[in-house]
Amino acid sequence: MAIERTFSMIKPDATRRNLTGAITKMLEEGGLRVVASKRVWMSRREAEGFYAVHKERPFFGELVESMSAGPTIVQVLEGENAISRNRELMGATNPAQAAEGTIRKVHALSIGENSVHGSDAAETAKEEIAYWFSETEIVG
Question: Locate the Nucleoside diphosphate kinase-like domain: which residues (predicted)?
């Protein structure tokens, strides 16, 4: 199995409910290691840039608003098959469809307030990590 890195975000709906530690614990207990982490409050411009891939989607404005509405934890996770492992630990985007014991099943409020984000592929992980972190901030 390959050791890889992925990007993870604990969204404002979860930080508002003080779930940072609980979610990080689930990630760590799931076999991932946090090698970089910081708390940021995204500006509208940062949120628009980070989610630019969704710019033409009808939910883009609401997404930017919610992501810039409060603090977010951005993280780099490392582990065996970290991208797929993180996605498995997060669960389905819709918490009603998420598997029991996943982060979204346990903590998400709705599809829009689904508590976490994770990269979906190696190239996406590389881009998302670089958006928030310099190489010197990643210590693993």
Answer: 3-140
Phi and psi torsions of 47, nearest 5°: -65, -40
79 and 71 Cβ atoms separated by less than 8 Å: no
Question: For the chain, what are the domain ranges?
Answer: 1-135
Q: Are 127 and 114 in contact (CB under 8 A)?
A: no
Residue showing tokens 């951005």:
74
User: What is the fold, at CATH topology level, of the domain defined by 1-135?
Assistant: Alpha-Beta Plaits (3.30.70)
87 is in an annotated binding site: yes
| Residue 114 counted as an annotated binding residue | yes
- Residues annotated as catalytic are 117
